[in-house]
Specification:
Layout (H helix, E strand, L loop, with lengths): L2 E3 L10 H5 L5 E3 L4 E3 L9 H5 L5 E3 L9 H10 L15 H4 L12
Antiparallel strand pairs: 1-4, 2-3
């Protein structure tokens, strides 16, 4: 099992989760973070740190977010590791908790 970043992170990209990760399993794209399932040790420290409530244990993923398992694995292969916090996107406050954000994912 692994933890998965889901749709609510898109266009927000809070990085509070990155500082608590003991294995540097987060990877950063233009407007989204993903977790590398190969390096995630299932510690769950990131879950409570995410202001957008966008991180789930794979087994607890809502059905409509299950495709993010594969998306996290795919993008972790091409995006660089992020190991320090940075400011969220300037539009984060407007985009947090908005539905149907997958269409805005920048690769």
């Amino acid at each position: 099992m692994t933890f998965v970043v889901t749709e609510n992170c898109i266009r927000c990209k809070y990085t509070d989760c990155v500082d608590v990760c003991p294995t540097d399993c987060f990877h950063e794209g233009p407007n989204f973070l993903v977790i590398n399932p190969q390096t995630c040790i299932d510690c769950s420290l990131c879950v409570q740190e995410c202001p957008a409530d966008a991180i789930y244990d794979e087994k607890d993923l809502p059905e409509d977010q299950r495709h993010f398992i594969e998306l996290n694995a795919e993008l972790a292969e091409v995006w660089p590791v992020i190991d320090a916090t940075s400011a969220p996107m300037s539009e984060a406050e407007q985009w947090i908790d908005r539905p149907d954000k997958l269409q805005y994912l920048e690769r």
